[in-house]
Amino acid sequence: MSRRDPHSYADLDQGRVSHLDLDLDLDFATSRITGRARLDLAAPAGGPLDLDTRDLEIRAVTGADGQALPFKLDPRDSILGAKLRVELPPGSASLTIAFVTSPEASALQWLEPAMTAGGRHPYLFSQCQAIHARSVIPCQDSPQARFTFDARVTVPEALTVVMAAAPGAATAGPRPGTRTFAFTMPQAVPPYLFAFAAGNLVSRDLGPRSRVYTEPELLEASAWEFADVDRMLLAAEEIFGPYLWDRFDFVVMPPSFPYGGMENPRLTFLTPTLLAGDRSLVNVLAHELAHSWTGNLVTNATIDDFWLNEGFTVWAERRILEKLEGNEAKALSAAIGRKGLQDALDNFGAGSPFTRLKTDSWGADPDEFYSMVPYEKGFLLVALMEQTAGRARFDAFVKKYIERFSFTSITTEQFEEFLEAELPGLAAEVGAEGWIRGEGLPQNAPVFTSAQLVQLQGLATGWPQGARPEAPATEAWTAIDWQIYLQALPRDIGAEGCAWLDEHHALTRAGNSEILCNWLALAVGNGHEPAYARAAEFVGQVGRMKYLKPLYTALHGNKATRKLAAETFSKHAPGYHPIARGGIERILAG
Ligand code: BES
Ligand code: ZN
């Protein structure tokens, strides 16, 4: 009898929920879902069964024969939520729970029509990673507890439901004016990959296995931006082996979606800030696609093994990029990653335990210690192993690793054991122990460079000596080049420096969200007044935390804009996702 996941009350020795049969009825008037979940056990069980919930109202629990079962809902823990203990009669094969979600459910964002592109219909979406599935369904909310499911979702008939599952029929709903969408998920998934969205959605096919869903207003732009999805899918299959999820569809979400992308199986979610109009941000799509293997097939056992998901996926994302766009593009992407890692290391402090790949997060909230460390330090370790073993050997290893652990959830230690068996001595050669359990960045981190990178960084670091980005050189700069340049500039170029850049390159009017965010953070930090209003406007238009955090940090950090930061937050807080709201509150309290 033991809990094996610091972020779940589930005790898998009590029994394993292996299939869910779900009915969800969405009420936009009250921002509540009325739900019924039948939880089927992998093997008959009896005695206590502990489940995770957060802010769920539990109306009834019944056994397979319809008899009420005793249950107890514990007080709510601020990180874990409330443990629900059901007493199962011996030999129970299933239990059914009737429940209602809270308007504050941490996985859900209910959008007023005004927060959508069309402005006429409401919208609801879920975001369950890391530990939010429990606010939508009572479940064993640990990545070690995979389940298959069938679901029926009822919505007002003007809306369409999409789910990270195979769609079935849409039929007339239980009440006039409603429709019910059926889904089935034949592949077992960890609870954090449970996902759905409901809104005024249309779609377009982009390839034999891919289709984009979004609101009608964004369809054209979305289809254009991600037109290369099928080539990406083929490139990813070359690296990892066959794609096992049947379809790779995706949804371009409303702007309040708090992440860049989320790898929900069969249905990736993407932020609309990727619609740059130049395909410069499609690496996020490649990243979520790569999770179809690293993350969704081979899953981290707990959040402390998160680097297995993200480090491998960033590595794969850059291998896909290398295949499609070449080495130069890969080096630039790695440089952007390296900067993100440096910022994270500086933020935590060099000796912080959160700069380890394998973390120990008992008592900590995954949303609070989320950082680029597992992504970019993880990437560097995987790339180092690839370079040291040689690409051919390492690629063969990766394919074998995926095959061996498909549809399972593994710890870092299981990875290390497999690595030692397959590529003996490699871990010692690269110093894997220090990488995985040590703080900071080891000396032998691989370095990616290119002629263009050297030129851009040279120009940026030469700023104090008078180097300036000028035509004709800048005429050929891509959005990525601008990102690299802005990130490499000294942080203290002053208001005059910013004015020069703005005058020559109109950066405050940049349409590319990455350029804009990098620029506004720099400009606000340097007291460039014309950027203040645009920064405040931008954080009111997007909900992606990658942009909200640095911009609120800059606005809060500048005395002249501290008040603006607070006012802007009060104005837009109701429209932010609950997770984003919490993150900004911590910044403004600092
Ligand atoms: N799985 C993550 C998003 C995530 C992580 C959500 C942890 C909740 C908790 C996703 O694959 C991701 O990493 N997205 C990145 C994009 C990527 C290119 C680094 C993002 O959202 O920016
Ligand atoms: Zn990821």
Structure ligands:
ligand BES, zinc ion
Give the low-confidence spans.
Answer: none
Query: What is the arithmetic mean of pLDDT?
Result: 97
Tell me how many strands there are: 19
Q: Mind telling me the C-alpha Rg? A: 24 Å
- CATH class identity of the largest domain: Mainly Alpha
- In angstroms, what separates the terminal alpha carbons? 41 Å
- Quickly give the CATH architecture of the largest domain: Orthogonal Bundle
Largest sheet: 8 strands, mixed
What class, by secondary structure content?
alpha+beta
Work out the helix count.
19
- Helicity level, as a percent range? 25-40%
Q: Output the CATH homologous superfamily of the largest domain.
A: Neutral Protease Domain 2
Which outline best applies? Answer: globular
Describe the structure.
- Strands 1, 2, 3, 4, 5, 8, 10 and 11 form an eight-stranded mixed sheet that branches. Strands 13-14-15-17-16 form a five-stranded mixed sheet. The protein has a four-stranded antiparallel sheet with strand order 6-7-12-9, with no helix packed on it.
- It is globular.
- The protein has helices at 216-225, 229-240, 283-290, 306-325, 327-348, 366-369, 373-389, 391-405, 412-422, 426-430, 432-437, 451-461, 479-488, 494-505, 513-525, 530-541, 545-557, 562-572, 578-589, and strands at 17-27, 32-53, 57-63, 71-73, 82-100, 108-111, 123-126, 147-156, 160-163, 166-172, 178-189, 196-199, 202-207, 210-214, 249-252, 261-262, 267-270, 298-300, 408-410.
- A hairpin with an 8-residue loop joins strand 4 (71-73) and strand 5.
- It has 590 residues and is an alpha+beta fold.
- The protein folds into three domains: 17-200, tricorn interacting facor f3 domain (Immunoglobulin-like), CATH 2.60.40.1730; 205-437, Neutral Protease, domain 2; 470-588, Serine Threonine Protein Phosphatase 5, Tetratricopeptide repeat (Alpha Horseshoe).
- Residues 129-130, 259-263, 283-284, 287-288, 291, 310, 370, 375, 546 line the site of ligand BES.
